[in-house]
Amino acid sequence: MTGPGADVSEALAMCLRSLPGGDIGMPSSLLERTNQFRSRTANLRILLVLDDVSHPAQVRALIPKGPGSALLATSRLRLGELAMQNVARLISVKPLDPQGGLELLRDRCGAEAVEAEREAAERLVELCGGLPVALQVVAARLVTDDSLGMAELTAELDDEAGRLAGFALDGEESSVSAVLGPPYRLLPPDAARLYRLLGWLPFGSFDAGVAAVAAGLDTRSVKRLLRVLVKASLVEAMSDGRCRMHDLVRLHARERAVEDELESEQAALTERVGTHYLVLTALADRALRKERLRIADLSDLLRDVDDPFTRAGGPPPLEWLDTEHPAILAVLRAAVRYELYPLAWQLAEAFSVLFLYHRYLKTWQESLTLGIEAAVAAAASADTAGEIAEAMAGEARLRSLLSRPLLDLGENDRAKEQLEKAVALAEPTDRLALRASVQEFLGRYLDVVEPTSAVAAYQRSLELNEQAGESRGAALAGFFLGCAHDARGDHAEAMLLLRRAQQQLESRAEPDMRMAARVRAAIGVVHGHLGETEEAIHELQEAVRVLGGVAKGMEYEAKAREQLADVAQRAGGRVELVRECLSRAGNIYEALGNHSRAQELRRRLLGLDD
Q1: Domain with 545 in it: what CATH number?
Q2: What sign does the CA torsion over 182, 185, 187, 193 have?
Q3: pTM given for the model
């Protein structure tokens, strides 16, 4: 039968046959069957379950009237009309959590089978995204094919390109596709096209602005279409105003896009979305600090754009970067895959600002590696000398930046290799600020592997920054140079350099209070080396106070607290100050995910009681 009216009429007939009286006096019309159903259930307490409802009209006539009775209806759609009429309470059923998914596999495949391949079973649940239909197909394939183990099935489904096809039994259409097909086919054409294009996004969570760029539409129109997709349960609206598309739904949308969209559209979509993220990432970078070495000239791209980070009520730039960083990395990968090389290396450069504050080392390493690959390819395919020079300068900048996560990961030889290439690329250019920056990174590498040689690199960085008129770069070079002199025992020279760097950072038009506080902590350390304990404690306490009150200063606050604990412990008689500093620093390291360092400080705390 077709149409909700016919469905309801047949459903009413089924219900009437199950009630006392059966087929006796079965009416032929929908209205008469509705009235008889209400009459027969008036004195009964029953639960009626309707599965796979697609229209509110399929529910209203079937609501039992007897006291204590209830109707439970399941639907792939959001039947908001029923809630608006105060006849229903809507309950959103989320995918199973990891434990629930494992329990389903145990029920279908046996507990022993799951425990025998526990890691593979957990990965299967993750690949299914908690969707019961996907888990049911996985379980059915495992129990019907004796030669197929969980590890083998996991390896098959790990390949995203063929994952959706893997959720099928032999001779059947993919069960996931079978579930998603009807709501997709009911979509109006414009919503269906948005659905397809969202499947080509290289990530699953997005806001209306990203969806609008992906579809090439205005944000208002896209918000309307997203509501259609949410109602069809093809997109999930999240509490923060963003939307999410389940991984398997996204694969279904991608299949439909490959079938119905032009082949060139995916690369074009990647360029649109990549440019969107480049603009926003560059604006976030500039919102965090206007003065910073940047190789890519984005002045034309950023001219006259709406800057959300300067708008009243706009997102804090660092929080936005932190939220969006999985999407930005995914876009960066896609940009390289589609040979959008200038876009890719420029995005990698702007993206690095996040990692100067949040040390996601592996992500930073990958993004810079992708950027370097893109910069090399951009220089090779450039049409003008200016484009070649900018791409090569970008490569030098990215290679020098890559030395930082490599050093933090203990890969010193690879850091050295990147810096040697960066120096070779930067030195022949007339970009004094770039050459100064590369020398600064070289000095920081030498601080780790050959401290006595670091002074020369920092001195060269200082001179180049001064020649270039880069006063902030000179202040930073002076800070690192002062620390290097202090490490060599030249405390008086260190104090002069550090005092000058502190004054330069604090007196700027855009004061850098976080960096100035780091310099102040270094001044405190020098006082300690000179035996000036009270001065050392004072400077370090001031540095801790400032770093504790500025955003993005947690890691440096922890380090300053450790340095303060060192000075106080050497002075003696200040056990409570030492204990407070070590305890707070340990908590900060724990919050930052540096569990090994936190554990070291806990052991040191225990030693105070011995």
Answers
A1: 1.25.40.10
A2: positive
A3: 0.80
